[in-house]
Specification:
Layout: E1 3-7, H1 11-22, E2 26-30, E3 42-45, E4 48-51, H2 61-68, E5 80-82, E6 87-90, E7 96-99, H3 103-113, H4 116-139, H5 155-160, H6 167-172, H7 178-184, H8 204-212, E8 215-217, H9 221-235, E9 238-240, E10 245-251, E11 254-260, E12 263-266, E13 269-272, H10 276-284, E14 303-311, E15 321-324, H11 330-339, E16 348-351, E17 366-374, H12 383-401, E18 410-416, H13 418-424, E19 457-459, H14 470-487
Parallel strand pairs: 1-2, 1-13, 2-9, 6-15, 13-19
Antiparallel strand pairs: 3-4, 5-8, 6-7, 10-11, 11-12, 14-17, 14-18, 15-16, 16-17
Bound molecules: flavin-adenine dinucleotide.
Length: 491
């Protein structure tokens, strides 16, 4: 049995651990934190438990596959609940728009709230999204791109779907209403991209949401992570928590193990789920050989300020996922992504699990998190000094727009800043999602799923192909699995 080490327990790490075990590798998963999940771990505070990160579960079959490949029924490990509507958008003119889960209803809503022309435009946009999905998701999401030539066969179709346009520009060429454009071009933000620069390939997320639906796990995303941890235990994967990998043990072009805070562990192959920019810098202690992966050339995603809180008041009319758009849009995104300055008027995403999962009430309270995209730590913002003030800004926006009296009703709250992503999760500059989903950082140009430096070092996770988001990182494990099976001659 070959020994495999997986470094990091994000969804990408959990998925590759399951997959390698299926092929009879002796797998050890090493995680720096005290619990598994990476960005999807849970955080406890004053007796409340919060999902730290992902709550929108799409393409659930990708998680379910991990159970079925071990002849287990995923349904016995966690349950999925349908989210309806997928999102509520609130605009600065106080109007709102409910998105999902019925296409006909959506088209009717666009016609009555906006215009017939926009309703027709939306149908065309969805058709485009489906076409992009067919190429970019169905054909390419688990295909390893090891050379620039491997992208050539796909170029004609990529040209036809106008990959060189941004998501915002593609949406704007179908839709006239400014509010609707903001709403329909927001998906890149869910994976760390600026809608104005993210390649239109990522329009595929719209179709992906419609195809399989949007779900939430009963008991929270932490129930999925707990289900995967149970599965790993049952199939014999060793999970070592509270242990940071400090360096790789190398012999010429081969890695033979890892050095951790708690000693050395040997391996025949290693898969890193850690943020690659940080991993090269701190653990491999080398610059990547591949030109497109040189840190200076890379654009890392924005970061996030996430405020977790519970209230004694139950806000029954608040939907599960609400996105509150600020009046400033492009300028705000420029401040966050390019100018990297402090903002005082964030757009917000509010998560209220009780809306979908009423059985999950904690201590007779309503629990939430609200996140604001903010500049990553390449800015000069001192979050120790600014955090408290910014949390007040966020609470005030919530109070005015959606949760009246929120501050008076608080029973618990705390927040994390870009420093959490940088220091606790080892991500470069505290980026929330790894490298940005722009074309020059996609497919071959993303971090390789196999190292160019060592024969038996592989990568999974948000900055590798195909990219961030729960379905994205689980697909990175499928891509990497293909390379490992090829290299180890396993059929
Ligand atoms: C607040 C937030 C909300 C989100 N919401 C959604 C959503 O609703 N839907 C969605 O699909 N996506 C969402 N995303 C994106 C999604 O969560 C991520 O893309 C995905 O979970 C990242 O998984 P990953 O495999 O890249 O690993 P990560 O989650 O980045 O985990 C990497 C792990 O490696 C560990 N590690 C790093 N270095 C070392 C080391 N040297 N030794 C040991 N361990 C190490 C880290 O501690 C971490 O646990 C969200 C992200 C955030 C931050």
């Amino acid at each position: 049995m070959k020994k495999a080490i997986v470094i990091g327990s994000g969804f990408g790490g959990l998925a590759i651990a399951c997959r390698l075990r299926h092929y009879n590798f002796d797998v050890t998963l090493i995680e720096k934190q005290e619990n598994l999940g990476g960005r999807a771990r849970s955080l406890s505070h004053n007796g409340f438990i919060y999902d730290a990160g992902p709550t929108v579960i799409t393409a659930p079959y990708l998680i379910q596959e991990l159970f079925s490949m071990h002849n287990k029924n995923w349904n016995e490990y966690f349950k999925l609940l349908k989210v309806k509507p997928y999102y509520r958008f609130i605009f600065s003119d106080n109007s709102h728009f409910d998105y999902g889960d019925n296409i006909l209803q959506m088209v009717r809503q666009i016609k009555s709230n906006y215009s017939e022309k926009d309703a027709r435009g939306y149908i065309k946009l969805l058709k485009l999204s489906k076409r992009i999905f067919k190429t970019a998701y169905t054909e390419l999401s688990d295909k390893p791109f090891e050379s620039i030539q491997s992208m050539i066969p796909y170029l004609p179709e990529l040209m036809r779907i106008k990959f060189y346009k941004s998501v915002h520009s593609s949406v704007s060429s179908h839709i006239e209403n400014e509010n609707l454009i903001k709403a329909l071009s927001m998906h890149p933000l869910l994976i760390g991209g600026n809608p104005y620069t993210t390649t239109s390939i990522y329009l595929l997320i719209q179709y992906l949401e419609w195809k399989w639906g949007v779900f939430y796990a009963k008991g929270g995303t932490r129930a999925i992570v707990a289900g995967l941890e149970k599965l790993l235990n049952e199939i014999g994967v060793k999970c070592v928590k509270n242990t940071e990998v400090i360096s790789l043990i190398k012999s010429k072009n081969t890695v033979t193990g890892v050095d951790t805070e708690n000693g050395v562990i040997d391996a025949d192959l290693i898969v890193s789920n850690a943020d690659p920019t940080m991993f090269y810098k701190k653990v491999i202690k080398k610059k990547p050989k591949k030109l497109s992966n040189k840190p200076l050339l890379l654009k890392h995603s924005m970061s996030l300020f996430v405020l977790y809180f519970s209230t004694s008041k139950i806000y029954n009319n608040v939907q599960h996922h609400t996105i509150i758009f600020n009046k400033r849009h492009k300028e705000l995104l420029d401040d966050i992504f390019d100018r990297r300055v402090k903002i005082i008027d964030p757009s917000l995403y509010l998560h209220r699990p009780l809306a979908t999962d009423p059985d999950n009430q904690q201590m007779n309270s309503d629990s939430f998190y609200v996140l604001a995209p903010v500049a990553n730590n390449l800015s000069s913002i001192d979050w120790n000094a600014y955090g408290e003030e910014f949390s007040n800004v966020v609470f005030n926006i919530l109070d005015e727009n959606i949760l009246p009296g929120v501050k008076e009703n608080l029973v618990d709250h705390f927040y994390v800043t870009p420093d959490y992503f940088e220091n606790d999760l080892n991500t470069f500059a505290g980026s929330g999602f790894g490298i940005q989903p722009i074309f020059r950082q996609s497919a071959y140009f993303r971090y390789s799923n196999k190292s160019k430096e060592y024969d038996n070092l592989y990568f999974v996770g948000a900055s590798t192909h195909p990219g961030a988001g729960v379905p994205g990182v689980i697909s990175t494990a499928k891509t990497t699995e293909k390379l490992i099976l090829r290299d180890y001659d396993i059929h």
